[in-house]
Here is the input.
Amino acid sequence: MKKLTLSTAIAMALTSHTFAFADTLTNRIQQLEMQNRAQEKVLQQQAAAIAEQQTTRAAETDVNDWYRHIEMFGLIEVEASLFAPENGNDESDITLATVELGIQSKVNAWIEARASLLYEQNKTDLEIDTGYITIANTNITPLFLTGGQMYVPFGVFETDLVSDSLTLELGEIRETALQVGAIQGDFFGSLYLFNGDAQIDEKNRIDNWGANLGYAHTTTDHAWAASVGYLNDLGESDALQEVVGNRTERTGGWTASASATLGRFKMIGEYVTASDDFAAEAFSFKNQGARPAAWNLEAGFHFELMGKKSTLSIGYQKTREALALALPEQRWLLGWGIEVFDKTALKLEWARSSDYDRADGGFGNTDDSVIAQLAVEF
Here is the structure.
């Protein structure tokens, strides 16, 4: 039997102790790793539960606290005007030209409601101007549906001047309608239906319709837009309703508009016309059925004056066969506006309007007007 030396015994003892220590340390590390994985899993489950609770609370907040999403808006315009007719005495006045108060609410991810009140001194008593509901969610679908009292999308009527354009005077239409459309990138379009105020062949039903198609693109230094629209009865416009009344046939209408902003310069063009002649007994011009039309051309230059945003504009507008609507045959306009304070603008406008010639049934007069307007948006 071989005897162990002292050194051999010590070496064996040390080796045996090291193996035992290493095995114990490995087991402890494995146990710690298992514990860490278990704790991490528990934390993940807790985080998921908290996120679900937050989502549920947010949804409940959206449903129960819809009033928190209500926004109010408004516009007040005060005007001082001077009217100088070619024949007759000058007239001047200070009027509360516009008071508009509105409210809108993003009720949830799909529903938005909007309503507005309007008052125009000497023109419109306080009334509900618009009120409609829109169903839309662009994150899911480009389609939208709007129903209620609205200004149907027949014409754009954009202007930087004080006075309404003659295209608006001829073609603006406010009706209770149903509109379905889509917005895809820079393109948009819609179809709409309504029951107009006039009755054709004494039938009271939903048989008015229109369509529009457009494109709008904006970058940091330029923007442009264009649109076209059709309406199956131009006689339903706010201006024509009182003139043409009930009839036996409809007369359609077309509109086209375009605008471009290049740096400091801006151009606007728009055209509205009936697609055919009205019956002479409904709306006539020179003893024949009238085919009214109006167009607007406007150029603007944007600049800063004393550190304030300012715009200088010039416009030319014209109508055709619109004598019965008391619209001028042509109008020149020159305007200047400046943002004196935030959301507060001061505008000045001079306009020269020319009546239809006597040969067309008018008086051939030329009238001048000057308007100063202070407008506040909120």
